[in-house]
Amino acid sequence: MAQELKRRWQNYIDGGWRDGADGDWIAVENPATGETIAEIARAGRADVDAALAAARRAFDSRELQDVRPVERGQLMFRIAREIEAMADEIALAECLDNGKSLAGGRNEALAAARYFTYYGGLADKVEGRMIPLGGNYVDYTIPAPFGVSAQIVPWNFPLQIAARSIACALATANTVVVKTPELSPLACTFLATACERAGVPKGAVNVICGYGHDAGAYLVAHEEVDHIVFTGSVPTGRSILKAAAERIIPCVMELGGKSAGIVFPDADLEQTVASTAAGIFSNAGQVCSAQSRLVVHRSVLDRLAEMLVARAESLSIGPGIDGHDLTPLISAPQAAKVEGFCLGAEQQGAEAATGGRRIESMPGHFMQPSIYVGVSPEMTIAREEVFGPVLAVIPFDEPEEALAIANGTDYGLCAGVYTRDLQTAHWAANRLVAGQVFVNEWFAGGIETPFGGTKRSGYGREKGQEALLNYVQSKNVGIRIAAGGGGRPGG
Ligand code: NAD
Predict the structure, then answer these.
(1) Which end of the chain has fewer CB atoms surrounding its CB within 10 Å, N or C?
(2) DNA repair among the record's keywords (predicted)?
(3) Residue to mutate (ligand 1; options 236, 251, 287, 383; most atoms within 8 A of CB)
């Protein structure tokens, strides 16, 4: 299958495909085998300059702003159709450079297309309001785009994440420079192809791949950038915010998580196990909203742990291309980091009920599905984001204690409640400090539901109608209709 993938991939700048200005290439590895399967042009500073200049020109041309929003929506529907038409090619790229299964890669493509239809449908519904100032005035607000939006994408779901931010930007007539992840860049180039084929104005969407410390850092500190959308780790988010602070520009920060599901004694345990397996083992746990902690009432702890272990041990492990349940981690350093968390947990007194080690006998970067019991809330494995298929199970006795544990990390991305009792669900959902709470099904929700963090998990929302609010700023226009009036400065 690998032969079907193009060997050399380029950046998309100002409506054209280009090698890097420095002539360098980034090797792209298949995480399931460790083999280099392709290379992508490395964008350096000159490429960032060119992409931003193109995005600025496209914004200043007002081509996107001046059309009727419904036409921007139709343009986005065409992008969605182009993505759907390439779903099989995208699935293969996601499978080979990211490790996902073909089905998972195809889902990525279809979800990316859905972002363009969802936000395309909203493009003509981003409305201002009329503000009454009496008969002598007309006053209204315009939801105005920021200008050039710089978007930085992580490697775990590169296509979906790039699609959700580009779609919001286009719906609101911003122009975009996207820096795709150096570890899994291929699928995002299909977004550029879709934009090109759909007739997106030249320069309105630019897709480049470069290293974070180089092209990424240069991009976010660039004076041509008016707005930043970052999805990635807390340390990178912090450094981007510092760059943004220098120029006082707005940011959306979608950062990491250490999300907990609370299992009350009346929970449906079968449902809890199925939901937890999806929550921590899908995409090999490399999910920002993974359910990496399970806070379990002591009365059901042993039974649930036994069921979870059985579930984990039933998973098939292997390359996504062969349709396995548990696919590889993205890189050797990531696998070493995940295993390091497991070794640290054992040193701190947690017990591996199953797993805990890399699978050295397989090529690629595979990790055993791992469940730790005997975990206490202060252990590192209960506090820090592992970003691998590793679940920390923590017992509780009283509901307030469960809440304190769930809320007791620096993160606040998602949270969950397993119970048959509606009152308990509401009680907990109201008190959990998280941007999204799932009841009885981890990842309940979708493109339509707002998603984002509290605390160190970031701020701003992606997905849902709320996301569009991050891409516009309100401009007020006050008009004196009747003759007279000298204006009232101040206030
Ligand atoms: P990362 O922060 O290392 O990298 C993310 C992106 O930032 C990459 O494109 C990288 O090249 C770029 N980058 C790195 N240093 C940079 C710099 N100084 N300036 C500008 N850009 C820079 O994160 P990662 O390892 O790729 O992704 C995993 C992290 O992303 C996890 O913490 C995960 O929770 C988080 N994440 C969050 C969400 C969300 O929606 N909240 C979604 C997916 C992943």
Answers:
(1) C
(2) no
(3) 236
Run of H or E residues at 345: helix 332-347
Mapped onto helix, strand or coil, the DSSP state of residue 379 is coil
Contact criterion met (CB below 8 Å) for 208 and 180:
yes
The reply to whether 488 falls in a domain is no
- Looking at every residue in the chain, the average pLDDT score rounds to 97
Rounded distance between C-alpha atoms, residue 225 and residue 348, angstroms:
45
pLDDT one-digit tens code per residue, 313-360: 999 999 999 999 999 999 999 999 999 999 999 999 999 999 999 999
Please check whether residue 262 is in contact with residue 397, taking contact to mean a CB–CB distance below 8 angstroms.
Answer: no
Question: What's the alpha-carbon Rg for the chain, to the nearest Å?
Answer: 24
- What span, in angstroms and rounded, lies between the C-alpha atoms of 445 and 449? 6
In this structure, the number of other CB atoms found within 10 A of the CB of residue 449 comes to: 13
Q: Which positions are catalytic?
A: 254
CATH number at residue 185: 3.40.605.10
Residue 163 shares a structural domain with residue 208: yes
How many whole angstroms from its chain centre is CA 307?
Answer: 30
The percentage of residues in the chain with a pLDDT greater than 70, rounded to a whole number, is 99
Residue-wise pLDDT for 120-172, tens only, equals 999 999 999 999 999 999 999 999 999 999 999 999 999 999 999 999 999 99
For the chain, the first-to-last Cα distance in angstroms comes to 66
Does 1 have pLDDT greater than 60? no
Instruction: Write out the DSSP string of 277-330.
Output: HHHHHGGGG--TT-EEEEEEEGGGHHHHHHHHHHHHHT--BS-GGGT-SBPPPS
- If you measure from the C-alpha of residue 232 to the centroid of ligand 1, how many angstroms do you get, rounded to a whole number? 2
- Say if ligand 1 is within 6 A of residue 334 CB: no
Predicted local confidence at residue 406, as pLDDT: 98
Nearest CA to 392 among 426, 352, 434?
Answer: 352
User: Cα(17)–Cα(32) distance, rounded to whole angstroms?
Assistant: 29
How many other CB atoms sit within 10 Å of the CB of residue 169? 28
Within this chain, do residues 113 and 207 fall inside the same structural domain, yes or no?
yes
Task: Tell me, in angstroms, the distance from the centre of ligand 1 to residue 237's CA.
Answer: 8
Q: What is the C-alpha to C-alpha distance for residues 234 and 214, in angstroms, rounded to an integer?
A: 18
* Domain assignment of residue 331, given as a range: 259-439
The bridge status of strand 251-254 relative to strand 436-439 is unpaired
Q: Establish whether residue 371 lines the binding site of ligand 1, counting it when its CB lies within 6 angstroms of any ligand atom.
A: no
Question: Does 162 lie in the same domain as 113?
Answer: yes
Q: For residue 182, how far is its CA from the centre of ligand 1 (angstroms)?
A: 11
**Ligand 1 atom with minimal separation from the 182 CA:** 11
- Work out which ligand 1 atom sits closest to the CA atom of 236: 2
- Number of Cβ within 10 Å of residue 383's Cβ equals 15
DSSP-based three-state secondary structure for 437: strand
Same domain? For 289 and 248 the reply is: no
| Nearest residue to 186 via CA among 41, 329, 44 | 41
